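Appendix B. Raw example, untouched.
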Amino acid sequence: MATQDQVAAHIDLSGRQVRDLLRRGILPASKGRGGLDVNACRHAYIRYLRGLRTKQVAQPDSTDIDVDRERVLNLRADTRLKELKEAQLRKELAPVDLLQWVLHKTCAQISEALGRIPQRVKKRVPRLSKTEMEIVRREVVKCQKVAAEAKLDFDEYEHGEALQSRSIPPI
């Protein structure tokens, strides 16, 4: 009787590969601690290899985990997370909900300021007719509507369109 490591050394495999073969039922199960029969395991492994060669046994899924690759991926992810946290501390990044809140508040302030324009124009130029003042009010309302409809559009940003200067649509 032998342990998994002894069987692994006997048939020139790693301990992990032996555990995988045991789990998949290719090698006979252990009869207690250190209860693997080396000869039975060797014969089962040879039958398994012959079956692979003659395609009577299906190729195993490549479920082996490449530990080194996983370490590299984890290290990259950790590094990226640290970079993002540092960028946030330097105030180069902000949460999306904060950006949306700031945009909403800014647009509300702009709309409020636009709403005061007709009164200021009337005070400074009292000779304007009602028709002319109505034109000013309509234009202000159009601008307020644009401000009210402002939203963050990340699809535009990713395509570079947000970086181009934008103006209020012609009236």
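End of appendix B.
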